[in-house]
Amino acid sequence: MVSCEKNYNTEEFWRGLTPEKAFLVRVFVDHCVSTKENARLEKVLPVVTAHAFRIQDAYNSLLDSQTAAEEAGGDDEVADDREFILAELLRLALNLDYADEIGRRRLEQFVRTCGISVRVLCPSAEQCWQDI
């Protein structure tokens, strides 16, 4: 059992998102979906609107770090971490409850406007775009 299950839906958790935390929450949600543990799933799944804004923030952070890496003339580990976080957030979005119309529209708008550039900037997220 994941010991930090109760902390997934706090703003503090999402604000301090690391590649490890992003991976952990996504795998935990995938596990809950596959084992049909709906009660646990409802505790940890974020609201679609909030998650859409988090994805947008992760995308903007990725762009900023890639720009900084290009200006510095080298490979940036920060950009790699942000790419991984964005990919995990997109994978997590596949399991959200899209009854939230505002959130669904926000995420749909993001996918339409940024989908092509995310595919180029974040190749590890390619499978997510195919699933969406």
DSSP helix fraction = over 70%
Secondary-structure element pattern, one letter each: HHHHHHH
Number of E-type strands? 0
Q: Given the helix and strand composition, which structural class is it?
A: mainly alpha
- Name the assembly state: single chain
Largest sheet: none
* Rounded average pLDDT: 80
The domain count comes to 1
Low-confidence blocks of residues: none
Gyration radius, in Å? 15 Å
Overall 3D form: globular
SS strand fraction = under 5%
Q: End-to-end span in angstroms?
A: 29 Å
Specify the number of helices.
Answer: 7
Give an overview of the whole structure.
- The protein has 7 helices and no strands.
- It has 132 residues and is mainly α.
- It has one domain.
Secondary-structure blueprint of this entry?
Layout: H1 11-15, H2 19-34, H3 38-44, H4 48-72, H5 77-93, H6 101-121, H7 126-131
Helix pairs in contact: 2-3, 2-5, 4-5, 4-6
In short:
With 132 residues, this protein is mainly alpha-helical. The protein is built from seven helices and no strands.
Note the main attributes of this structure:
mainly alpha, 0% strand, 7 helices, single chain, 132 residues, 73% helix
